[in-house]
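W.,

You were right to be curious about this one. When I first looked at the sequence I had no strong expectations either way, so I just let the prediction run and decided to look at it fresh. Below is the sequence, 701 residues in total, followed by the output.
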Amino acid sequence: MKRLLLLLLVPIQLVAQNTPLAAFKKYPFPTELCAASRGSKLAWAVDEQGKRNVYVADGPDYAPRKLTKYTRDDGQEITSLSISQDGKWVVFVHGGDHGGNWDDRLPVNPAADPFAPEVKIVSIPYTGGAEKHFADGEYPVISPDSKRVAFTKGGQVWAAPLDSLDSAKNLFKTRGTVGSLEWSPDGTSLLFVARRDDHALIGIYTDAATPIRWIAPSFNRDASPRWAPDGKKIVFVRMPGAGGAPDSLLTDQHRPWSIYVAEVASGAATRIWTAPRTLRGSVPYTQGGFNLHWAAGDKIVFVSYADGWPHLYSLDAKGGTPLSLTPGNFMCEHISLSPDRKRLTFSANTGPDRFDSERRHAAIVSVDKTDMRVLTPGEGLEWTPILTDGGAKVALISATAQRPPMPAVMDLSGSDNGKIKLLGAGMLPTDFPQNKLVTPKSITFRAADGVEVHADLFEPVGGPAKKPAIVYVHGGPSRQMLLGWHYSDYYSNAYAANQYLASLGFVVLSVNYRLGIGYGYDFQNAPNSGSRGAAEYRDIKAAGEWLQKQSFVDAAKIGVYGGSYGGFLTAMALAKDSELFAAGVDIHGVHDWDGSDRISGQYAGKYEKAPDYETAIETAWLSSPVSQLATWKSPVLIIHGDDDRNVRFNQSTDLINRLEKLGVPYETMMIVDDTHHWMKWSNAVKVYQAAADFFVRKLKK
């Protein structure tokens, strides 16, 4: 059987079209946004066709000014962006892949430079000037006096003056991997966590002559330490250390956690609250995790799923019953404590419109009362809100279904009637095909077992009465696709690709299947899913069957594609239902749960195993696409980067060998030295262009 191999260095024969996918990917994408704790200074990072740079702006006019001068599409991301309290310095990390499951601190080199670029801590004057560098550093935090920056290197703590980073020194050495750095309010001490395999300790470093103070050391795993405003106490989370008799692998277990307050002088800690001993009361794992803060009025704020949704709670530092700050059927993300510690800003999928559950809007709430307000109602999308200008204004990222994300500022006084001022709107290229973008529609349908599923429908304009259709499957799986541009750079790629496919005449259905966020705990933690039964695949099949029934869809020409977890479900669709799905594109998907060591790896060499270990192994196998290959008939394009740090590259290599042996038609594209997140802009364009070309050839004959 003839195989077609698409290589990175070989030009791809593109299907003739008026507007190529590259035009849909020309938008500048803001990846970071921060504000100085005093005044009205903002900074944000922007990816402009792979050229990532930092911009700054000052109130009251907030005219953008380019601060850095990176000119290559070289895959070097900008993360950990911050401004010093005095507003004189901007600090960030340049390089690495900080969305990886492993090796996120290692350099990436998708540009094929003879030597991989180093991951660097960078400081640069806010007014502009020469950059200061220190190679091989991570997670910088600026001291309150704006003179020093502490960061981690090789799992240990280093520090340097902001104006001479090359003179950085290792502050101390301790066992384990050190992280979660936070300066004391007076800048004399550093709070940190030392992770030591089965337990984790919280420590305080003062200087080279003073022994490290360990705070209430125990056999537990302590995390997320935060200083009290006066620097005399800290608050932290405590979880049990690893170990104990193995429990069921096929049944969810409560993951306990508690909040403690400790006296810095004595190191003694007191438990002030224990999460409910229910599944919903388990350790939260949405964006930001615990989102623990010591707020004004001696209030401790945090996130919990206790009522079935990831909400904000406030608790007195002496203990008591937490106050739910954000009740309702919606989730809170991108949470930030105001500089005066009196308010929390966040994004939420709620508002007055009935489709706001499929969007994000900026919101604000006091730390001590239930007075939440949605700041940006409407059909737009807004996220990462932060207060600036003494709390008089909020900076955020704003987008719509047609307009890509841009930084923006809004006056909270109401003097401008809630109007959002976009920063850098002129950066959008004049040839960006904004007028060709459709507005996705929110629809729902039910899977075979009765679960209601939400999806976004992209309908092309004009064309034949019956059109080919494609099901898009997001990754994660704890993600939610939205009725507009997405806040993640990875899913902004997918949104642009779905719009491009619609411009080619495809109906696209983007599915928010069970396990995703935005619809509550029970939906996100659906039983018998993933390696425990792949129940979520029913939602993907139901999406294909919904399309089959639509009068505007050619029922014989339905495709499916997705990346990561979406690649896994794409492979499941093709393996189990080739009669429904005529073709698919599987981008760095998981194909063998046991091959990913999720189960067998944790018990390797151990005599004692979980009581349902054998059943779990068998279930994982049957939940894997590789166990269903006998019925796989439809053609597939398999794409993977060989520096993937989220899904092992051999997951695709193994599948290809199996398909070859069975005679299943497949094509491949291997991207050299790029990661799971397509760090190089041109690689993202090639991947999604190849996917579109494949569907044109297979579904538009």
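Here's what jumped out at me. The two ends are 20 Å apart (CA to CA). And, maybe more interesting for your project: The mean pLDDT is 94.

Coffee later to discuss?

I.
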